[in-house]
Amino acid sequence: MPSMANPELPVPDGLVLRPFHGVRFTVDDLAGVTSPPYDLIDKAGVRELLDTHPNNVVRLILPGIDQPRYAEARERLQEWLSSGVLAADETPAIYVYEQSGPGILQRGLIGDVGLAGPEQHIVLPHENVMPGPVANRLALMRTTEANLEPIFLLYDGAGGAATRLVDRIATSRPPLAEAVTGDGVRHRLWAVTDTGELASINADLRPRQALIADGHHRYATYLELQREHHAARPEPGPWDFGLALLVDSSAYPPHLKAIHRVIPELPLGEALAKARSSWQVREHAGLTEGLAALEESTGPAYLLSGGGPAYLLTDPDPDRLAHAMPTDRSAGWRALNTSILAEFLLPKVWGMRDDERSVRVVHHDPEAAVQLARASGGTAVLLRPLAVEDVLAIAARGERVPRKSTSFGPKPRTGLVLRLLTSGPAPQQAGALSDSEVSGSWRSEQ
User: Fold this and answer.
1) What are the residues whose beta carbons fall under 8 Å from the beta carbon of 408, sequence distance 6 or more?
2) For residue 307, which phi and psi values (nearest 5 degrees)?
């Protein structure tokens, strides 16, 4: 358990995963009440999930399609708890969670992770956060007094005791809950309540570090909520922990996919004309040929398309590139394709910033990015995914990759297990932001 390193904030003495009273849906159609993580759901997706089941968890994580309604989420949560749609497990547990399907097998542990700032080198972020999404998640957590979806952490467990226990449970015990979602992935959950098994898990985890794979804004929200509580009442409490899925990346290597860019206000012809001054540009007949060339390329490379032919950018001018990249960053950081995009290609070649106003992002799907570029008359910039080891090395040095550099998966399904910060009704806290006071991109995450 966390040890008190100062009179205000308890500081974990290692990577700690605590059992908790998981709150779970009691409905028969478990798949129908779950959802992807909140930041991967657009407005059409919200409507589809609302139509799927009257108790879909999207009513809690994204209350209101056009305007967030956090009080509505609080009322809905309390209604479902009172009616029995949601119920808390009687015995605190750490949960084994398995995702399996075509090309997917991931197992990990869901529990209360002890909160630690980045300076402690226990939970390592690899991306910076933006104030808007943190304010939105903070308003939701304040109002509902709940962690509604787990963040996703990776650690190098070297197949240790915790991982061996996870595998033994997943292959020998009947699951507590099971659901197959529309994407064909089977989700299974087991509860670990035995004191000996819980002790074995934490003895194995304590000396290790965890990388935030997904959920940077939610983890920052956990820390902010913890600071608020300790400012008002400096004593330990449930706010010293946050809901997390912890996966041994040595046993279950994550999928790391690219996040592509679309620049609506940059026509493809203009993008190519400006790029030719400092990049080699090669034309390919279509997207398929261009993606194959991008995959085979070495060094910095980007594929541009607006529909029709695709154009591969390679071999940037070394002098111009070196001049553009910040000297206070490591060589590994300066070599990332997202760093070169943010520091050189966008500002120096195209005269714009890599921000939410100028640049749209599309997770994983190059065809969707090209379609968006075609519809907007702009340019799709397609990237190769970063290497997991490069991200880990940068996080271990205390650096941050540029925004929207990584998309780790498979991400945990939202709605399988929730966590309450209070066992009673969740009253509106003094100082909580009203729905109208919260602004910003409320689906932006990582």
Assistant:
1) 152, 154, 213, 214, 254, 255, 256
2) 100, 145
Helices (H), 335-441: 337-340, 366-376, 388-396
For residue 195 the two structure tokens come to 């004191």
Contact 33, 25 (CB under 8 A): yes
Residue 405: pLDDT above 60? yes
Q: Which of 394, 378, 398, 376 is nearest to 386 (CA)?
A: 394
pLDDT the model gives residue 429: 37
Contact yes or no for 13/206 (Cβ under 8 A): yes
Q: What pTM, to 2 d.p., does this model score?
A: 0.86
Q: For residue 276, what pLDDT band results from cuts at 50, 70 and 90?
A: very high
pLDDT in tens, 87-123: 999 999 999 999 999 999 999 999 999 999 988 999 9
Query: What contacts 442, CB < 8 A, 6 or more positions away?
Result: 62, 68, 132, 133, 136
pLDDT, tens only, 11-23: 788 999 999 999 9
Q: Distance between CA atoms of 160 and 248, rounded to whole angstroms?
A: 9
Look up residue 204 and give its amino acid.
D
In whole angstroms, give the CA distance from residue 336 to residue 162: 33
What residues form DSSP beta bridges with 241? Answer: 114
